[in-house]
């Protein structure tokens, strides 16, 4: 196969940012419980933000909570998440060699996209800080796809905006969520070993078939595998 585009995760794939996700989720959970979610049923360590909100939506349906109230809670949740991410921009660091790798891939004529569950403004500011914002054709943040990663609609929507198909792209990420997203859409996946949880980022701690120490190795790897 010959690739025409690459879809990148952002956090721990291209950058390392010290976002306090546990603190962020604690604030989310406190707000949800304040508005009637059963106490102690949500976990800041065992659930992702997407899982927490899925549980919240299921509970709201059960409680027949008015849509206007649900929308207001979601707005407050968004503010909690956005602020937590934006606070981390000043201290974020590039995954060593990431910016150079992006420049090389762009020179190869590949279309590049960001697909993240973080806020759009956070993604934009992070890429600008690395000096690679202009190298990306598409930047999709939270709620900018019909479904978030790992659901099929995330990558399907991204490739449509890129003017490509899932057969034309590879997804690059540091976490099982990225891997599942690629699998659910049927595109190639290459994992990188820069996740915050190390090998625990992968189900059963087993890395993907295509696996690199970091994104810095990606341009040469694509050439060596005949993908470009």
Explain what this protein looks like in three dimensions:
With 228 residues, the protein is α/β, with parallel strands linked by helices. It has two domains: 5-17 and 93-224, Rossmann fold (3-Layer(aba) Sandwich); 21-86. It contains eight helices and eight strands. Strand 4 (111-115), helix 5 and strand 5 form a beta-alpha-beta unit. The longest helix has 20 residues, at 67-86. It is globular, with a radius of gyration of 18 Å.
Short description:
The chain is α/β, with parallel strands linked by helices.
Beta-strand residue percentage: 5-15%
CATH class of the largest domain: Alpha Beta
Q: What's the gyration radius in Å? A: 18 Å
How far is the N terminus from the C terminus?
Answer: 8 Å
Overall number of structural domains: 2
> Main beta sheet, described?
6 strands, parallel
Strand order of the largest sheet: 5-4-1-6-7-8
By DSSP (H or I, 4+ residues per run), the number of helices equals 8
